[in-house]
Inverse folding.
């Protein structure tokens, strides 16, 4: 065999091994059952009258203790940073409905079109976080976040996920690295305390207004027309649960620091509001509250820590009549 | 189009397949068309300044050669036009903003609207590359290129168009004009180089960026956390920029071109001057040859040499961006290089070398703080932070952040130590590495990218310059 042919063959072997090795290894990795039942226990221990579901938008706006004081009733906190509609549906279904909790009202906070974007924050690192709220069988979540659904939206990503399922272990690998490092770095405190200190160090309230961050900078997907079909979003499924178990739900659209004045958004929000109210849900739009000014924002669309009590009070004032 | 996207993979595979089916002349035409497509993929109007520089400098170079008595005038016109365009796109907004600020301070009416000009990516790179060519033709170091396709390809060659390396005319035009053959052996090293670049970008740089972005987003970081963030930025910028260079070099190698080395273990530098011989080599040698030496270099008095160095580093800072922190960063390096210039080369065994490396590493990172923090007021505040006010809890938080960055960057340190103290070609580029070794390295890199890459990826840092 000539030197040229031999080198060419080596190149082919190199490329083949490189592409095949992670594909083969990925198929041997098993999934773990990771349903986190702790919130169910917490809810049962202290049954809430009001439940808050949402991401850091809700977290930066609502001071749970203050809301309890204002309303004189207990509050359940199901707010998780980096969550989106898939997880909100799971929180409502598994931590409220299935747990037998009967709150007077469940508030679900959202930004613009996120509510009807079922794939938002469901892939990569979000997948394992999502699995924490998933029971063994979750047909609605599986259908709306399936690889086929992803393929319709992002064919390249879908192909990569299908070829290399090993990617699903990204969060687990990161977790192992972080746990080991927490053990090394925590020389005078426990690992959990150090983790807590890390959380405190980078609390939203400590971030510079308008400063650089990787938080909440994802683009909100442009959805031309609101689609109420059960195959298009988790909304119909949330409302079905709400109706079936007579658990009122209020959807809260948060005001953004830089409101998107795209035409599609106005018509989308109009359709969404109409559909929600026609189907028995309550709707509150914070965007109409002029008392929440630009100065009150911290990082991105988050409210700065010092204005959190103010915004909590504004919110309570706005919804208190509906709570009766 | 960015290197770590599926779009680039598809684009490159198509270019690669078609390219090797064509003869040299058609290869160049096809590469030029592909380069324009690559550059105009997101913003087609970016092609306008690129085409303007190409056409203008091509004609000027021919004129310089044809009319030797007017060559100074033509070179001046060409360089002024290139720098003028760069100024309009890159510095006009900065200039207007600062003049407006001065007017306000003086109590005079200022401009109500600041200029918002979108900066075409890579403009600083291709402008400098084109200026280098004009100067070389003026000096008679290279002959003016007579083929417009060849010259346009020299300015536009897609792997290095957006973030370098800033190539010299004699090297790149020479390769463009010669016949290229596919070499499967070199292609193997190119595949490894690309994978190594992708690993550095997606695993090391992007993970370091998460820590760095978090720290620099804090309104009141303490001393320990701040420097853990600066260290993360040091790793991020090196991994990010050298990753771009590696992918550019690997892509070029697959097309039969060899681009220049841009980094040589910069964090093992033993002095500020040594750092600049190892960091962004294509820019520092460009500044040496086209700014520092024409200013007089080190031929004059010590004072004159110091001034020349300060001017050169001031330009280097300004080249990086139209902001005061970059200017400060440039001046900072100028002062350091002047101060440490008397440090001679250490022949034989240098027992102080580890300390020199450590000291330079600290100086480099002080520079990175200036580079990363764009708000001067905040920068001044950060400079006043004291290590004595840090609680034990915060030292542990900082240690964790430092270890997190360091852990992801271990492959870079191993690679650097290997090339610095072992084999200069590096583990993966070594011709003695067996096929099994190459396959194992490539498969592990790819696996690492799949399971360890950061979930948030950003553009290459040097795209903004």
């Amino acid at each position: 065999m000539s030197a040229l042919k031999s080198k060419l063959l080596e190149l082919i072997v190199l490329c083949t091994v490189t592409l095949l090795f992670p594909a083969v290894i990925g198929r041997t990795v098993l999934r773990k059952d990771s349903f986190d039942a702790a919130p169910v226990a917490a809810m049962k221990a202290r049954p809430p009258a009001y439940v808050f579901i949402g991401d850091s938008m809700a977290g930066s706006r609502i001071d749970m203790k203050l809301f309890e004081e204002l309303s004189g009733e207990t509050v359940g906190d199901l707010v998780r940073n980096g969550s989106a509609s898939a997880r909100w549906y799971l929180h409502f279904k598994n931590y409220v409905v299935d747990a037998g909790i009967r709150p007077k009202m469940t508030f679900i906070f959202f930004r613009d079109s996120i509510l009807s974007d079922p794939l938002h924050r469901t892939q990569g690192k979000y997948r394992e976080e999502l699995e924490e709220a998933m029971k063994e069988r979750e047909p609605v979540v599986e259908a709306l976040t399936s690889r086929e659904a992803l393929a319709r939206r992002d064919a390249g990503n879908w192909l990569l996920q299908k070829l290399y399922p090993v990617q699903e272990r990204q969060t687990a690998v990161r977790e192992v690295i972080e746990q080991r490092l927490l053990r090394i770095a925590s020389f005078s405190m426990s690992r959990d305390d150090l983790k807590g200190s890390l959380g405190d160090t980078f609390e939203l309230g400590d971030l510079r207004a308008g400063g650089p961050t990787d938080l909440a900078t994802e683009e909100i997907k442009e959805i031309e027309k609101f689609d109420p079909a059960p195959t298009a979003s988790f909304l119909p499924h949330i409302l079905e649960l709400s109706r079936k178990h007579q658990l009122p739900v209020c959807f809260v659209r948060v005001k953004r620091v830089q409101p998107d004045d795209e035409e599609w958004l106005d018509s989308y929000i109009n359709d969404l509001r109409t559909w929600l109210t026609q189907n028995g849900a309550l709707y509150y739009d914070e965007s109409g509250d002029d008392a929440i000014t630009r100065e009150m924002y911290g990082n991105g669309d988050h409210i700065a820590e010092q204005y959190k009590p103010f915004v909590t009070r504004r919110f309570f004032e706005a919804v208190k009549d509906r709570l009766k | 189009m960015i290197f770590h996207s599926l779009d680039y993979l598809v684009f490159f595979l198509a270019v690669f397949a078609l390219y090797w089916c064509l003869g040299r002349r058609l290869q160049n035409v096809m590469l030029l068309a592909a380069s324009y497509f690559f550059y105009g993929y997101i913003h087609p109007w970016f092609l306008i300044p690129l085409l303007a520089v190409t056409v203008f400098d091509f004609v000027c170079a021919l004129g310089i050669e044809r009319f030797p008595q007017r060559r100074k005038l033509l070179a001046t016109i060409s360089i002024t036009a290139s720098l003028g365009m760069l100024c309009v796109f890159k510095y006009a907004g900065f200039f207007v903003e600062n003049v407006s600020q001065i007017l306000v301070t003086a109590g005079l009416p200022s401009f109500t609207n600041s200029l918002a000009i979108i900066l075409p990516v890579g403009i600083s790179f291709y402008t400098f590359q084109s200026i280098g060519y004009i100067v070389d033709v003026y000096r008679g170091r290279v002959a003016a290129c007579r083929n417009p396709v060849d010259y346009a390809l020299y300015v536009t060659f897609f792997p290095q168009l957006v973030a370098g390396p800033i190539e010299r005319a004699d090297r790149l035009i020479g390769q463009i004009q010669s016949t290229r053959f596919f070499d499967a052996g070199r292609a193997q090293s190119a595949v490894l180089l690309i994978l190594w670049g992708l690993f550095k970008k997606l695993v090391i740089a992007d993970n370091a960026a998460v820590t760095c972005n978090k720290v620099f987003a804090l309104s009141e970081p303490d001393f320990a956390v701040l420097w853990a963030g600066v260290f993360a930025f040091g790793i991020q910028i090196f991994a990010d920029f050298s990753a771009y260079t590696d992918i550019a070099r690997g892509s070029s190698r697959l097309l039969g071109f060899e681009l220049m080395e841009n980094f040589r273990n910069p964090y093992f530098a033993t002095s500020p001057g040594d750092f600049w011989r190892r960091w962004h080599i294509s820019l520092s040698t460009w500044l040496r040859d086209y700014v520092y030496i024409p200013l007089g270099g080190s031929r004059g008095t010590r004072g004159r040499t110091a001034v020349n160095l300060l001017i050169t580093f001031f330009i280097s800072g300004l080249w990086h961006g139209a902001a005061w922190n970059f200017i400060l960063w440039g001046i900072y390096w100028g002062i350091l290089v002047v101060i440490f210039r008397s440090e001679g080369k250490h022949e034989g065994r240098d027992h102080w070398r580890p300390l020199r490396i450590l000291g330079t590493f600290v100086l480099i990172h002080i520079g990175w703080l200036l580079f990363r923090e764009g708000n001067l007021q905040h920068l001044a505040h950060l400079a006043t932070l004291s290590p004595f006010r840090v609680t034990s809890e915060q030292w542990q938080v900082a240690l964790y952040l430092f270890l997190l960055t360091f852990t992801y960057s271990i492959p870079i340190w191993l690679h650097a130590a290997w090339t610095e103290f072992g084999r200069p070609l590096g583990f993966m580029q070594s011709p003695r590495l067996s096929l099994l070794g190459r396959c194992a390295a490539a498969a592990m890199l790819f696996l690492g990218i799949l399971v360890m890459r950061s979930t948030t990826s950003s553009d290459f840092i040097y795209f903004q310059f």
Chain B has a mean pLDDT of 89.
